[in-house]
Amino acid sequence: MNLIESLKLNIQSALAKLDKQVELSDIIIEHSRDLAHGDYATNAAMKLSRLFAKAPRDVANLIVENLDMSNIEKVEIAGPGFINFFMKKDSLQSIIKKVHEQGDDFGRGEKKNYKVNVEFVSANPTGDLHVGHARGAAIGDSIARIMEFAGYDVTREYYINDAGNQIRNLGLSVQARYLEALGLPFTLPEDGYHGEDVKIIAKQILDEEGDRLLKDENALAFFMDRGSELELEKIKRDLATFGVKFDVFSSERKVRSNGAVEKEIEYLKPHTYMQDGALLLRTTDYLDDKDRVIQKSNGDYTYFMPDIVYHVNKMSRGFDKLVDVLGADHHGYINRMKSALMMHGYSSDVLDIELIQMVRFIKDGQEYKASKRAGDAITLRDLYEEIGVDATRYFFAMRAASGHLDFDMSLAVEKSSSNPVYYAQYAHARLCSILEQGKDIPLDFDGKQLQTNSESALLKHIALFVDVVEDAAKERAPYKITNYIHELAELVHAFYTECRVIDKEHLDVSSSRLALCYASKQVMKNALSLVGVSAPTHM
Fold first, then answer.
1. Which fold would CATH assign to domain 92-111+416-529?
2. Ranges of residues in the chain whose predicted pLDDT is under 70
């Protein structure tokens, strides 16, 4: 149990003695910024004053009178009713032993028996992943890592859109390039794919199949299947290089097989009506602002219809929560899909959709758009080859997905404290160097000699990691982890500046400080891993 959770339970117990039953989630403990105001603070007395029909300061006094003071040095009531806690040094120092004992598992939450499906990227297998997919990959994978670490049973899923006109256009494009490679007349489709990758795929198919496809009546189907397969293989390679792997790849074709769409339409029949020859779903009966067409007047299904089938399919696999990481243009999609799931008896909160806003790239102070490959878009591969996986992932993770992002490419490769990922990784490398220098000094995991303000601040921040992980998982907010990482790096650098770690004349102090270095290094590594960033030992 960490210090914050312990304080919450202490306050909850004090309130129970006063015949007031309060949920732990209603008790907020904050990390005090100013040591003069203690180590932690709570506004519980102010929030709960109505329960007592008393002034907040009077409630604060009642709470304090009923606290267990075994880990608390003293308590002060401040302002309108804040309660400030000054913890005993040994209660803060005990965190080092916990980090040592738990190692890579420090901060990991208990198993929650709660199954979550996180679907992200899901790009059409028709070309390279662009920057929107890149940001979605970084955020989606970080969400999955954080939730898994917090104790959720997480499945990472990629939905392959392999049943639409895009795949037909890809097949026609590959077929045209195949003819070109054979020196035969060819015509690229108007809505086709003109990138260099299509030529490469056509050449590979020619190497594999020779010219036999010229006489094959089903050649287009082959080009569609093999072309999308090779595009998907390339996408998987790029994602793997980016540190992203999926547990499940779901094919739209497979989801739609065996008449699944027709069966779903039959199931939804009580919620549908005809208008101008089209079939509409009454999503306004639930959360939507207008009813949605699911089948056009010409008999074709809208994109929404197979998406309903897919989401119902996911829920049928026993998930408690679906998380979709989608582009910002899907804003109107949220309530219509929630409504469709509610027609199946699911609650509206089984589906959460994280919308990824646009990215603008800045290089040398100017907006940067050009791609060395396509000439009109920056690809995921462009980013990790030019900037590196760590910097790309960290920069995408450190801002809320819901906000537009200005990505400074020049800053991302800068080796200075101005670059946040370099600053964090340098802190980890510095700790590794200190520990190597002091490898002959035994570590004191009791931390009894840690008395300075910079040491206490670092101890408190390490103890905070468990709560930050839980909060980031609940909010699906990777930026909360990067915020934590940045502050941890600041505290590490401040500690290094203010404290002499290796001191042969005061080995007892050095033993405690080296143990603090070890704990800080371990927590930095654990935190960086949650956003898919490495923790180098040398810089």
1. Isoleucyl-tRNA Synthetase; Domain 1 (1.10.730)
2. 1, 370-376
